[in-house]
Amino acid sequence: MARLAVLIGTRKGLFVLACDAQRRSWSLEGPHFLGQVVNHAVLDPRDGRTLLAAVRAGHLGPTVYRSEDFGGTWKEAQTPPAFRKALAGERGETVSHVFWLTPGHASQPGRWYAGTSPPGLFVSEDAGRSWKGVAGFNENPERIAWCGGLQDAPPDGATLHSLNVDPFDANHLYIGISAGGVFESRDAGATWTPLNAGVAADFLPDPDAPYGHDPHCVRVHPAARDVVYQQNHCGIYRLDRAANRWLRIGERMPREIGDIGFPLVLHPRDARALWVFPMDGGTVWPRVPIGGKPAAYGSRDAGESWKRLDTGLPPEQAWFTVKRQAMTHDTLDPVGLYFGTTSGEVWASFDEGERWECLRAHLPHVYSVETARVA
Amino acid sequence: MKVLLPTPLAEYTAHRREVEAEGATLADLLADLERRYPGIRFRVIDEQDAIRPHIKIFVNREQACAIAQALHPADEVLVVAALSGG
Q1: Are A86 and B54 inside 8 Å of each other by CB?
Q2: What is the pLDDT of residues B47-85, one digit of tens each?
Q3: Which of A49, A326, B39, B76 could form a disulfide with A340 if both were Cys (CB 3.0 to 4.6 A apart)?
């Protein structure tokens, strides 16, 4: 029977929380890659054993490591994600770090996608051993314009994130670019279309700009066809295809809380259930819990109404940030929710957000949290 | 020629800090290092053939600015992990 683990990518390495079948007893393993930034670590759900980690040391260039024994041993990719060599007179680009890893469609074993900073899209057909650029995006003449000339960027740099493969169509891909917006491809990455209608962008002069937006986290529902949600720099949205216009469901959040944040988590079976973790997006954008009182908010009706979920969390004076990759779920019943903080804590709820407990503190700044069902 | 490497690259060389490699230029030397220790080049040289921002390379204690620099068999190459924050 597959066992559950939580993969925690941090500023100083990768940690793994392993648990018993009841999710009562947790043990911490690691660190792997001590001292190196691990932006993302993901176990391949198609085989339950191939684990990829996006790693960058302070001094050294970015790379991807892979393990086939759940971190017992690691091998570096033979050809890590890298932009092509510039032609004479051309300005070359350099991958700063690999930010996001996504396994390919269930029908395409061995395929993985990677998103980088600056925004680049890469694909591997051999389970992460070698990577090549997706020309339809990386060589697209509109790419730099889509990305706002790369000036609009998070503190760690402009990035391509939220790589989603449509579970019902292997050729249908969604990506998020900060800043740039949401884009989709229906031909496995050969061509791309902006998908930002209805999304606010209060930092752009044109309220109906086709791109230049700042999605923080985009999730395609794994079980319900054509249901997409996003936590954006300017609100929480739902997109019901075949419509191409996002609906701002965050307007139903309490006014004193607002609808700014980074992560967004979907229930693995119920397309109307989701969770967010609001952050203070006022004044200079402190990016901390509103008033120092952290809380998740959950909706059971696709964003029509929201419930504050803070039982067990610090009641006051808690000023951490939960980053866009640092909140996730498991697939058990009831669903377990997990988030990591920039202050090195990992919190969990085993009743879909009703009560939270701190699984571990004193870790480094948490960049990403993913669950894994290890074969 | 003798090549001295910093600790962040130790995993590539079985923790040897001093190795031998050959080349008429730094580019050739790095290619030879890559043959001997796969993966090492990309961690210090980016895809545009530039020396990465927190890496410095010295030839006989003079800093090299580009990998086109010529080398001689008696040269000593020092790769340094420069200051990198926090």
Answers
A1: no
A2: 999 999 999 999 999 999 999 999 999 999 999 997 666
A3: A326
Give a yes or no: residue A122 inside a domain. Answer: yes
Overall domain count for chain A: 1
Between chains, do A61 and B46 touch, taking CB under 8 Å as contact? yes
> Per residue, what are the HEC states of A272-338?
CCEEEEECCCCCCCCCCCHHHCCCEEEECCCCCCCEEECCCCCCCCCCCCCCCECEEECCCCCCCEE
What's the pLDDT score for residue A308?
98
Question: How far is residue A309's CA from residue A297's CA, in Å, rounded to a whole number?
Answer: 6
Strands annotated E in A77-119 = 97-103, 112-117
Q: Spell out which residues of chain B touch residue A130, defining contact as CB-CB under 8 Å.
A: none
Q: What is the mean pLDDT of residues A303-309?
A: 98
| Cα distances (Å, whole numbers) of residue B72 to A164, A221, B22 | 51, 60, 9
Whether A181 maps to a domain, the answer reads yes
Compute the distance between CA of residue B46 and CA of residue A251 in angstroms, rounded to an integer. 45
Class in CATH terms, B2-81: alpha beta
Domain of residue A291 covers 3-85+95-374
Q: What is the pLDDT of residue A156?
A: 76
Q: Report if residue A90 sits inside a domain.
A: no
DSSP B70: B
Whether A47 is covered by a domain: the verdict is yes
Instruction: Pick the residue of A32, A33, A60 with the most B CBs within 10 A to test the interface with B by mutation.
Output: A60
From CA A233, how far away is CA A245, in angstroms rounded?
Answer: 17
CATH number at residue A166: 2.130.10.10
- pLDDT over threshold 70, residue A372: yes
